[in-house]
Amino acid sequence: MLRVLAVDDEKPALEELLFLLRADPRVRSAEGATDATEALRRINRALDAGPDGDEAIDVVFLDIHMAGLTGLDVARLLAGFAKPPLIVFVTAHEGFAVQAFDLEAVDYVLKPVRRERLAEAVRRVSDLTAPTTTTATVPVPAAPVAVDSAPDQIPVELGGVTRFIPIDAIAYVEAHGDYARLYTDEGSHLVRIPLSTLEERWAARGFVRIHRRHLVALGRIDELRLDAGATTVRVGGAELAVSRRHARELRDLLMRHARR
């Protein structure tokens, strides 16, 4: 279960966030801090106590706009730690998503915080902190999976210009909180659509969820690898982790396709 530190300099917002976090059965404890200095002091104290200590922190739910150091400043400082806690940004501002994920945030939740959206962020953190197991290599057929041939496209913004990217050109998608980054052979594009929405819309087109952060076109998977308890897939030049909860389903899908 998760040990959480929530940081927000607005006390009502902090109390609401803590209330929602403490109501989640995956959260063992949730404590609050009202500024970055206090948060860093608690994180340092928790690291000194060790990962199994009572003060250990698994994840920090962090506001961005605060007096003094901002949430982004705190994340940059934590990036220099040997074993920093995971970070979820909780903010009223949409414009910092790219910076947040450049700092390897697990999620980016917009205020006002909805219970369901916060639960999704907690799930993502839980997936990252869960232990994994297994070994072996399964070859994957090169033939693409059959999907709906409708010429569906998705609009993306690039330098003030709207382009329309064919869905069939997308190899995989990476979650960035309420945003998603689409990867094609030519590059990547950030769109403001949650990964869960794309997962639902594109299931009929052969896209499968392999991890809290990734949705993959099944026909683009070149290899599934199980090595030392970790499952990964190769999609073009990218190697993507497969979470334990998705590994069996993915192997079954690939084997059924191979038998065809």
From TrEMBL:
Q: This protein's superkingdom?
A: Bacteria
Q: What are the alphabetically sorted keywords of the record?
A: Phosphoprotein
Response regulatory domain: residues covered: 3-126
Signal peptide segment: none
Q: Which GO terms describe its molecular function?
A: DNA binding; phosphorelay response regulator activity
Which positions fall inside the HTH LytTR-type domain? 154-256
4-aspartylphosphate: which positions carry it? D63
Annotated PANTHER family: STAGE 0 SPORULATION PROTEIN A HOMOLOG, TRANSCRIPTIONAL REGULATOR-RELATED
Protein name according to UniProt = Response regulator transcription factor
* Record organism: Streptomyces mesophilus
